[in-house]
Design brief:
Length: 146
């Protein structure tokens, strides 16, 4: 069962982020980068904010990162999130792609135990058949499961 059980919360790729979501569907986390100056960026966008180039590349990530900041959501903005309250929305810094911060949920841990600087890793939430959303869990929790 998906973390948020609602088709209304399934990502709807657009022209700019469709390649990002296509990678996610293969359970590959990768970030757009500039093919000219090599700066990574997220979310995907048509123009490099550093050098204005239209040339696009991609940089794979191992899916491990560090919590830069986070918030604990206690109020349901959608009916489908009510069963998960309180849940965590965090800004993650990938360990292996510099210049990027991305937003994800942190699961598999009580919200009061989440802290800035904690190590997390991606797990793939199959929100509909063949459509995966990257969410994060504590790195240590994975180590305990192995
Ligand atoms: Zn550039």
């Amino acid at each position: 069962m998906p973390f948020f059980d609602s088709q209304a919360l399934v990502p709807q790729p657009n022209f700019d982020d469709r390649d990002f979501w296509a990678s996610c569907d293969h359970r590959l986390l990768r970030f757009q980068c500039c093919a000219l100056c090599q700066q990574a960026r997220h979310p995907p966008m048509p123009v490099c904010p550093h050098c204005r180039s239209l040339k696009v590349g991609w940089q794979d990530s191992c899916g491990q990162g560090t919590v830069f900041t986070f918030t604990v959501v206690h109020h349901a903005s959608h009916e489908a999130v009510k069963p998960k309250l309180p849940y965590v929305v965090a800004v993650i810094i990938p360990d292996d792609v510099s210049g990027v911060r991305w937003v994800s949920n942190i699961t598999d841990i009580p919200s009061e135990d989440v802290h800035i600087g904690m190590s997390v890793e991606v797990w793939w939430d199959e929100v509909m058949p063949g459509r995966f959303v990257p969410r994060c869990r504590p790195l240590a929790a994975q180590a305990l499961k192995k």
